[in-house]
Every structure is written in structure tokens, then in C-alpha cells.
Amino acid sequence: MSTSLRVLILEDSESDALLVLRELSRGGYEPTWKRVETPDAMNSLLQLETWDLIISDYSMPHFNALEALKLLSENELDLPFIVVSGTIGEDVAVEAMRAGAHDYIMKDNLTRLAPAIGRELREAKVRRQRKRAERKIQQQNEFMTNVLESLTHPFCVINVNDYTIEMANSAASAGRSVRGMRCYHLLHGADRPCHETPCPIADVRKTRRAVVLEHVGHNGDGKSIYYEVHGYPILDKEGNVIQVIKHWRDVTERKQAEEALRESEERYRLHFENVADVIYTTDSEFHITSVSPSVVSLLGYTPGEIIGRSIAELNIISPDYIERAYGNTIRVLAGEHSGPTEYEFIAKDGTKRFGEVTGAPLFKDGKVIAVISVARDTTRHRQLEAQLRQAQKLEAVGQLAGGVAHDFNNLLTVILGRVQLALMGLTANSPMYENLSEIQAAGERAADLTRQLLTFSRKQVMQPKNMNLNDTLSGMKKLLRRLIREDIELQIELAADLQNVTMDPGQMEQVIVNLVVNARDAMPEGGRIVIETSNVELDENYAREHAGVKQGNYVLLAVTDTGHGISKEIQARIFEPFFTTKPEGKGTGLGLSTVYGIVKQHGGNVWVYSEEGSGSTFKVYLPAMLEKEEPESQSPERVQMPQGKETILLVEDESSVRTLAAKVLSGLGYTIREAKNGRNAIDLLQNDAAHDLLITDIVMPEMSGIKLAEDYNHRFPNGKILFISGYADRAVHRDGMLKAGAEMLQKPFTPQKLAQKVREVLDN
Fold this sequence. Notes:
Layout: E1 3-10, H1 14-26, E2 29-36, H2 39-48, E3 53-56, E4 59-60, E5 63-64, H3 65-74, E6 81-85, H4 90-98, E7 103-106, H5 113-150, E8 155-159, E9 165-168, H6 170-173, H7 183-188, H8 200-207, E10 211-218, E11 224-235, E12 241-250, H9 252-274, E13 278-282, E14 288-291, H10 295-299, H11 303-306, H12 311-314, H13 319-333, E15 338-346, E16 352-364, E17 367-377, H14 379-424, H15 431-456, E18 465-467, H16 469-475, H17 477-483, E19 488-493, E20 501-503, H18 505-521, E21 527-538, H19 540-545, E22 552-561, H20 568-571, H21 591-601, E23 605-610, E24 616-623, E25 647-651, H22 655-667, E26 671-675, H23 678-687, E27 693-697, H24 705-715, E28 720-725, E29 743-746, H25 751-763
Parallel strand pairs: 1-2, 1-3, 3-6, 6-7, 19-21, 25-26, 25-27, 27-28, 28-29
Antiparallel strand pairs: 4-5, 8-9, 8-12, 10-11, 11-12, 13-14, 13-17, 15-16, 16-17, 18-20, 21-22, 22-24, 23-24
């Protein structure tokens, strides 16, 4: 938490002042500041406002640091004064220090500023405390002098036999003649000796020694007044007590201070025992002399198991960090402070924990006697950092994979399209038919790989629908049983009243298949796969511990296997594309990366939980729809190549793709107008009559397909639009999702798919 600081800055350069303020913020301060550059302005602010610190340039056009120090002295203010200059020499710096400056710092070394401020604020506090103490001592000395000179404190000499007062000062007598009066009558208003109240007279006569007693009286308002009563014996020649010197003083304030101290110590004890951070002290032999109970949560040890033992004996700090720990302790024992330093601790059960430790010296009689340290558990923080780094790495790999896949889709569109056109002109027994069919099959496999890469990179275009995972799993039971072997048991447990999700149905099925295949391959000797669904609510605590997760309602899909488990090292890379533990030729390494991409693109999260030898569980969290709607049905896919006579504007910046699409559609009877980019298309729209359909790529130079579609809709409100793309870039497609009602054809596409989609859009 930042420390508030009221700073008066003497500086003619605003930019230099801002540099100083930035360094203060970096050093953990939250400054309230004003900048002046003249003596009058400084004098006015010193008189009108209260300041913690003054930071001054040495030389300004109308002012300098020496004049400022003189002005500070004239105002009788003791404030830390630090000179910050870019040109100050050693002689000038010494002169400034002699004039009263507390430190000087070069502007090219401002990193010294925050530590210097911390030191000077502490020293200023010490100076204030010392002055208060000196004033108090002075007052006490004056008081004692007056006491000794005038005997103003209550003082009397009492005969022990009859309790008569033989001598008393004015403070005891209040100006009356009290000689011969009984002390119990004068002091307590009683008519007989104080047998029920501790009496110094009786005690001194009995013990023949000086005694100190406490007496509680009451003032006129009924409030308690505490007295400290002293009794001193006066002996005769035989050693018998004949008189008692009695004096007393009001110790009400001391009693109140003692009570305040007791309450303060109790508050400290409660804080020490209940604070979440671990507070501990270490002596010069590295033995732990005290530790707060919170050590149990960090290390699993009770205070009794730690106190009195050395750090080396306990083995609570990892070997890689022990030298750092000893070094920091030695520096603090030398009087320095140890800033936040991270250590790796070893808990009682052997697990590794991370903590950030700050140390400070404990003084007694001006000497360091121990080190007090505060250790804050940073294990969760490190885990979140690791999750963030993993997510960033996957994001970077995804960007690369998405770009490569997009370019390959354009190439595959031309290859597959040309092959299909060639096959349409051949018979099955043609010499080239088999070769072209093999090319087509290889191209389709390549297209499948690029689709998986686009899915991982979250640039696969989705057509999400309202759906229920229970319905999807119920419809996939037969498929899933065919995917696994006979020695694997499949168990599906579906939650009642499961909430719906918004998902691309085909991609959801791919997630389920990939997870089941992964579970199957993890159990070469057989086992059991359990698929579960449930409604869950991820709270703020869960979101804090899992990077990228937003709190809210989710639908959980969990796939558990009884295989050999996954090591921590493999878990760290398990969602990377092309990473696989299978033998060469047995897997592409895209199965789980595809799952990751699909889930992330739909706003969800996927986590793996596994221990070696104990199986694995993959948990997929998908945002739940709070208002349940009936799942949407899917229309059957057309299987023929329909024709038409409509006019189509075809816009594609990749000439080979544009040429192929134009050839296919014109061959089916359509009238085609071609444009190589959005600007070219706008020119055609201005000169031509109405078009029945606009087919446009999404990502193009000069103007995106989205912008072109908006212009087209404005000109032809009844016109139809079909988007084509290798992926929908986030710059024009939020989260990679099409707007409601938009039609999309994913590259690479075949002539048949193009013809079917064009007819479908026109007819709808």
C-alpha cells in the first residue's frame, strides 16, 4: 500500500519535478505536492500548510537551495531537506549539507531518491521524538528542582505510636496548621486508624524498612485518583521505629499510561497471533526466537516445533535460497533493512512454498540484538504468473499458426477446386482419375489440419447456436463407444436440469471426441472413462486463483480416465499445437490444442488435473445461458450442385481463389462481376445495376469485407451477402463470431460446397 507524503518541491523545471514525482510513486509513496520557484512562494506555503519533506533543485533563476535552507530555519521548521540537482559539484554539495541539507542526489541517479526519503523521514521522526523527550526531561528536571526547593509535594513526619503529625509541608497541610492532628483524620477523614486500607505507618513499624504502597482515592467528580505512597522509617538508637516519613504523589496518569500500554500490548499480541503473514524473529546464530501462529498455514509447523531451532536444523529453506537468506540476515544484523526478497520454503510435508520476506533490525541499547522478519505467502501469486505466461505463450503460438493456416487455406481452395473441376470432366476409369483423387484426398487432409490450426488460434469462424450438452452427449453415445476399445468402460453421468450454452455444435462434438480419444490413448491396458456434466458457479476466489477466468455461472464438462496420469512437465505443454507424447506417426499433436482453441473462442476455460499414476481429469467450463431456451435445430445439408441465373458480385483479393470461384459459378449459369478489393467493388456498385448476391472475403487491403457489406446493404437493402475467409480477424469480427444472420463459407471450399452455399443464401 502506498505511503501518503506531503512534498514541497523547489524546482523551476516542471518536467524535472514530474521525474521526481514519478520516482516517488515507484518508491511506494503517494505524494501530495506543490511546486514553487521563488522565496515568497516558499515562505507562504511554509506558513499556510504542513509538509513532510522538501525536495529542492540547487540553483534556480530566482532562488537557490542555500536561500531555501535559510528560509526554512527562519520559520523554525525541522523538515527533511533533500537537494536534487544535475550540476552540483562535491564542494557545493558539502556546502549545502553544512547549511542544513540532509542529502543530495544527482538527477541522473534518481533511484536513490526513494530510499533517501525513507531514511530521512525516519531520522526526522527520531529527531521529533528526541526533542519531545528532551522537553519532557527538562520539564521533569524543573519540577524536581521546585520540589526540592519548595517541598511542594505532600510530605509529613508521623509519630508511629499515636499517628499524630509532627511535621508537614504546605502541599500536605493546604495552608492549615496540622501539627498534632491524626494522619488518618487529615488524609482520609477517618476517626480511627486505617486497618482496612494498607497503611505505610503500620507496615514500616512492623518491617522497619521503607515501603511503597498504592492508594485509590476519589476527586469531587467521583473519578478515581491513584496515589503512590512512600514510607521511610526513622529509628532511635535501639533501632526501634519512632517516626515515619510519609510522602505521596498522584500517579493517575502513570496508571492510565500503563493501562494504555497493556491494551497496546494486547492489540499487538492479537495482531501477532492472527495476522495472515508470518512474523518471526531470528538471533545472531540464526535461531528462531519467536514466530506467529500463522506459520502453520505456510509451513505446517506449529510455533513450538520451530522456536529455539536454527534455520539449518529445520531445513525450511530450499538449498538454492539458503545463501540468500543467510546473507540478508547478516546484513540486517549489521543494521541494514532487507527489502522484499523471495524465498522457496520447504513445508513440513515436503511441499515447496514461496514467500516474500522483509527484514528489519531489533535494537536494544543502540545495538542490534535480533532480526524481525515478515514472510508473505506468494505461492498462489507465482502459480497465477505461470498460468499467465502459459496463456501468453499459447496466444503467440496461436497467432503464428493462424497466419500460416490462413495462407494455406487460400492455396488449398485453388488446389481442391481445380482438382474437383478436373475430376468432373473425367470418368472413373480414366488414367488421371486415380491420381487426381489421391491429390484431392491429400488436400482434404491438409484442409482438416489447417482447420485445427485455426481452431487453436481462435480464428476459426464459428456459427454458434443455443444447445444443451446433455442432448449432444446423448446423441453421441454410439459414436463414442465405437471410438474406444472393448477393454474400456464408458460411463456418462448427465446432470439434471443442465443449463444451455451457446456453442458451435460441430465444434462442441469435436471437443468431446478429442477428449475421449485422448482418454482412450492414456489407457493402453484398458480402464474406465467417465464423462460428467453439471452446473457450477465460479466465485471470486476461484477467478483469483485461475488466470483469465471470470466469475459467474458455467456448464462443466469433465472427462476422467483411469490411466497413468500426466507429469507436471507434460501438463505445462499439453495444449501446445504439435506437442505429443505418442510415437512418430501416431498423432498430430493437434487434438488437445484444438480443444483449447474451441473452448477459449467460446469464452470458456479448460484445465487439466492429474497426478502421475492416478489418472487425469480434463474440465471444460463454458459460460451458461441464464435464460434457458430450446436448442436450435440444424437444417439438413444439400448434396447436389444447384444452378442459377442471378447476378453475383465476387470480391476476393487472392486472384487464384477469385478466378476459381468465378469459373465455377459462371459455369452454373450465374452472371459474375469480379472485384479484387473493396474499393474496386464500390466502383462496380456505382456503375452497375442491382446485384442479387455479394460474395466477399473478410480480410482485404484498403477495405474489409465487413465495411463493404455495410455499403452494399445501404445500396441494396434486399441484397444477399455471403462472407468467405480463411478466418475472421478480430479487428472486424469480435471474438471471431459472425453477427446474427450473417452467412459464412469457410476456406478451403470445394466447387460443390460453393454452389450449395450460394443457392442456400439466395433461396433464403
